[in-house]
Structure to design on (898 residues):
């Protein structure tokens, strides 16, 4: 879980305007004492607040949404231990609200930040809640009589960003006709697209998602997981140099460096004329004949490094 | 459907047809055309042979075969004389091929100097039949028997039984070597439970790394109640340095298909998938052709052997992710997701592909099944060790003289593999260490050469060589460099999900880089050790512990070399570019 919250050391959180911050630091001393403002009430912000409070600081915990807890409160389990997320966070939520040293400001935004470390002044704007929070017991009765209704907003159905041209459409239709729809055939379909274009063009993936009615994110997740799929165009010939154990022990590093020198590119790059793309792979299965490489699907084994230029010349 | 094969006389007919092409009444030129051969020029040799035959107007055929295992001698070419005697030649060139064929046609000259050996007999493992061929032909002098070669004499071929003996694209030729007899017996004459009993009794264990008893796996899947079940062949050979699965698929695809057919019948599956690495295009092509052929002849598809039984097989390609070799990640990938491992349990045998009971086995495991049915469990159990009966394949690579694939019974020692079969180290240099059994196993020193190979590590007795790649390193290899390389591999393959593996591997790699650049400090070694142990115990899945293991093993055995790098700022082997940048 990544923490985007940062604790801003702010000895004088002189809440002007709507903020109820009331710094107890002395603006003139250079000593770092006083109040601390924590932005974001997720698990990281909560923990930071609790620790700071325990260390004797006054804490203002500012959270944009109506309640603290953040993403973790929505999770079932946490990685990597598989522990129950709620069981970890709930005691901290309670503790945080009960702590006299912590002021929880929800539905609040930091609008301005001035000063320097030790002498910050922060402007916090609280949005109206239309409920007296000190009287609220959480019964939910206000909900039924509230004149304001929030309707759930669903995003518009996914649309590809551009229509396909004739030849792309024919290609995609041909590929889809050979497979049943659905995720089960996603890998073979992506492989066919890769074969047809040499990479996976975004516009084709969008139309694939559209015609199968699946999320584009789902397709991109798979496309980006596998080494073999590329989302950028490649050169006419892909040079794959083996970096497997056997080849490594028999000079694949020198082979790779020679290729880099001959082609003037680094692994993962395509040369300016679009002739070659250089990649590294882990084992081509030619381990008894190392070092090995593959160019445009043709394998070369027991490669003599001094013949690299000559071999490359065969591919125009 | 062309001439479906429904009974044993149909099999006999196919066998006769296959025998006729295997041993024609005229000269046959065989070109080893698996990937390793093709990579060093087999296609050029084939066209040279064809054009020579044509130009000279010879009564001869030029055919392709798979890999016989002696990859270090590729490109290979064989002559099969009209009587059936076969002579193998290594390190061929188109020019040599022309000379050989022309010379033989003119005067019967067999060029003993180029020959590796001749086959005076051949054992058809599936049936147990041994055929001998007359050695009375002229000019054999100076050509040893193939079976007497150091490389061959200790081997015991079960999985590789037909590799290099048949044309992988010919169904008849594989049937001529006994393939599909086991499937016929299982489907027509045996109950599914009897098939599982036989596999269990044979003691066959998975060859994919974990060595789980195959019979037990099948029984669990059979007992799981479901409307559909699947069998999957794991051919995602991601371990760098291992290529035996590729060879089996390219040389004898029907051995795998037959095994899957038997397994599917035993557990009650009607659909199968073969998940092949993307880097193996030739294997995919040959496999697809084999499935086509088998379907045409009623050996796959509906009503196999005229029984109500049906079984369909689909080939799926991977897309370059090491983790997809792990069975649950493989299943995720088949379902069209990113290949991330699932939590277990439930195990695939109860809830696998699309939540249905699924048996995932390695290529070698599937290919071992049919001979167990035809020759009996007792025959199989006699080979190998008590804990792990049977044979397995190793690939000898790096600095050994006889590089290639060898199949041997479990219990053989590393020394026999490297020095007897492998013929020792090139240039008779000293052996410094081995990177054996997969990247996660690190590098081991020559002092462990006399341990027997098994599926378990026992100090002083046995050693596990999980995936069978054995890379011999001579004194020109640097162990710091190897450790850096191995850790780098796992760093690259880490999915990034958990911090210990993602960041830990990066730090280990960074520290190793520092040492190999001569910037290491004495404290780095203990830091590395602590880091590796932490990563090993804290990582979410096996991947995290793999990189640490590789590092810890190498560091334990070759600590001195690490220290030299740090203390003297020197790489004894001259591999690390201390003071020379990168
Ligand atoms: C990280 C990882 C990678 C693996 N890679 C492979 C592989 O490339 N090929 C394979 O057959 N098994 C591989 N396995 C083992 C499989 O998960 C599984 O145990 C095997 O396919 C079962 O087949 P078997 O019973 O025939 O051995 C891998 C396991 C792990 C944890
Ligand atoms: S290690 Fe390079 S081909 Fe296998």
């Amino acid at each position: 879980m990544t923490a985007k919250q940062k604790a801003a050391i702010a000895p004088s959180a002189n809440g002007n305007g709507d903020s109820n911050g009331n710094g107890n630091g002395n603006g003139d001393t250079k000593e770092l004492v006083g109040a601390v403002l924590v932005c974001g009430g997720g698990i990281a912000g909560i923990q930071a607040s609790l620790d700071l409070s325990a260390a004797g600081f006054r804490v203002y915990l500012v959270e944009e949404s109506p309640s603290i807890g953040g993403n973790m409160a929505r999770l079932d389990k946490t990685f990597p231990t598989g522990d129950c997320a709620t069981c970890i966070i709930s005691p901290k939520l309670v503790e945080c609200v009960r702590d006299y040293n912590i002021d929880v400001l929800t539905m609040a935004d930091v609008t301005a930040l001035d000063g320097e470390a030790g002498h910050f002044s922060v402007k916090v704007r609280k949005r109206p809640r239309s409920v007296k929070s000190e009287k609220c017991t959480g019964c939910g009765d206000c909900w039924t009589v509230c004149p304001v209704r929030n309707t759930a907003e669903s995003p518009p159905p996914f649309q590809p960003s551009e229509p396909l041209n004739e030849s792309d459409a024919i290609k995609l239709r041909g590929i889809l006709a050979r497979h049943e729809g659905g995720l089960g055939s996603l890998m073979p379909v992506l492989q066919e697209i890769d074969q047809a274009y040499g990479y996976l063009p975004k516009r084709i993936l969008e139309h694939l998602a559209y015609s199968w009615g699946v999320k584009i994110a789902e397709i991109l997740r798979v496309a980006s997981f596998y080494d073999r799929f590329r989302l950028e165009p490649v050169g006419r010939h892909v040079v794959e140099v083996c970096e497997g154990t056997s080849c490594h022990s028999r000079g694949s590093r020198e082979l790779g460096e020679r290729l880099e020198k001959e082609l003037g590119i680094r692994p993962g790059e395509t040369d300016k004329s679009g002739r070659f793309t250089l990649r590294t792979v882990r084992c081509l299965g030619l381990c008894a004949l190392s070092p090995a490489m593959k160019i445009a699907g043709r394998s070369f084994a027991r490669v003599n490094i001094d013949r690299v230029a000559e071999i490359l010349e065969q591919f125009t | 459907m062309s001439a479906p094969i429904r009974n044993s006389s149909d099999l006999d007919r196919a066998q006769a047809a296959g025998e006729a092409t295997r041993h024609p009444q005229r000269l046959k030129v065989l070109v080893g055309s698996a990937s390793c051969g093709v990579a060093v020029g087999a296609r050029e040799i084939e066209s040279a042979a064809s054009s020579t035959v044509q130009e000279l107007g010879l009564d001869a055929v030029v055919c392709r075969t798979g890999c016989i295992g002696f990859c270090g001698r590729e490109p290979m070419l064989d002559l099969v004389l009209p009587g059936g005697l076969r002579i193998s030649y290594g390190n061929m060139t188109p020019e040599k091929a022309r000379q050989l064929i022309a010379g033989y046609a003119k005067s019967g000259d067999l060029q003993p100097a180029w020959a590796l050996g001749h086959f005076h007999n051949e054992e058809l493992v599936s049936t147990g039949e041994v055929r001998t061929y007359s050695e009375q032909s002229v000019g054999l002098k100076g050509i040893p028997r193939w079976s007497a070669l150091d490389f061959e004499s200790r081997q015991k071929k079960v999985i590789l039984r037909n590799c290099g003996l048949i044309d992988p694209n010919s169904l008849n030729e594989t049937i001529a070597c006994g393939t599909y007899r086991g499937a016929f017996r299982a489907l027509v004459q045996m109950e599914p439970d009897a098939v599982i009993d036989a596999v269990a009794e044979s003691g066959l264990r998975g060859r994919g790394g974990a060595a789980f008893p195959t019979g037990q796996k099948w029984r669990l899947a059979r007992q799981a109640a479901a409307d559909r079940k699947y069998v999957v062949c794991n051919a995602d050979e991601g371990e760098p340095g291992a290529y035996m699965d590729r060879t089996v698929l390219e040389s004898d695809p029907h051995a795998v298909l037959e095994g899957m057919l038997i397994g599917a019948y035993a557990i009650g599956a009607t659909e199968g998938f073969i998940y092949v690495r993307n880097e193996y295009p030739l294997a995919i092509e040959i496999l697809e052709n084999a499935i086509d052929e088998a379907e045409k002849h009623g050996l796959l598809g509906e009503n196999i052997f005229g029984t109500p039984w049906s079984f369909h097989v689909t080939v799926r390609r991977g897309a370059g992710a090491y983790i997809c070799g792990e069975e649950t990640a493989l299943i995720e990938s088949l379902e069209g997701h990113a290949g991330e491992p699932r939590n277990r349990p439930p195990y695939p045998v109860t809830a696998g592909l699309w939540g249905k009971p699924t048996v995932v086995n390695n290529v070698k495991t599937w290919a071992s099944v049919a001979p167990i049915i035809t020759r009996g469990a007792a025959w199989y159990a006699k080979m190998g060790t008590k804990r792990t009966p049977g044979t397995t394949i190793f690939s000898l690579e790096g600095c050994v003289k006889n590089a290639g694939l060898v199949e041997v019974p479990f219990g053989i020692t590393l020394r026999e593999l490297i020095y007897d079969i492998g013929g020792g180290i090139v240039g008779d240099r000293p052996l410094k260490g081995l990177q054996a059994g997969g990247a996660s196993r690190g590098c081991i020193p020559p002092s462990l050469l006399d341990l027997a190979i098994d599926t378990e590590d026992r100090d002083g007795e046995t050693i596990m060589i999980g995936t069978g790649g054995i890379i011999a390193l001579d004194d020109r290899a640097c162990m710091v460099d190897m450790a850096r390389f191995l850790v780098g591999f796992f760093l690259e393959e880490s999915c990034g999900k958990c911090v210990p593996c993602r960041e830990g591997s990066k730090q280990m790699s960074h520290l190793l880089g520092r040492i190999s650049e001569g910037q290491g400090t004495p404290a780095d070694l203990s830091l590395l050790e602590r880091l590796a142990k932490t990563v090993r115990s804290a990582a979410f899945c096996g991947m995290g512990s793999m990189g640490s293991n590789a590092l810890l093993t190498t560091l334990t055995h070759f600590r001195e070399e690490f220290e030299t790098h740090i203390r003297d700022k020197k790489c004894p082997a001259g591999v690390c570019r201390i003071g020379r940048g990168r």
